[in-house]
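Session log. Operator J.P. requested a structure for one protein chain; no other inputs attached. Running the standard single-chain path with C-alpha cell output.
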Amino acid sequence: MVRKYLLPGLLVVAFVTPAAAATEYYVAKGGTTKKCSVTTKKPDGTKMMMIGTMSYKTKPEATKAMKAAADCK
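Structure written below.
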C-alpha cells in the first residue's frame, strides 16, 4: 500500500522542488541605458551589469537593494 503512493510522491517532490527554488532576483544596470532594474536572469556582464555580488530570494528584497545602491541613484 505504501509503495503505491511512494513513487508518485517522490516524483512530485523531484519536479516541484527545483522549480520553486530556481527563482532568484538580481539587481542589474543596463549597459546602454544606464538604468537599474530587477531581473530574474543573471546579468551577463556585457548588456547588463550586475550591481553588487548577491542574488535575492524575493523581488521586494531586490527592489529594496536597488533603491539603496549608490550605482542606481
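Operator note: Helices lie at 2-21, 59-68.
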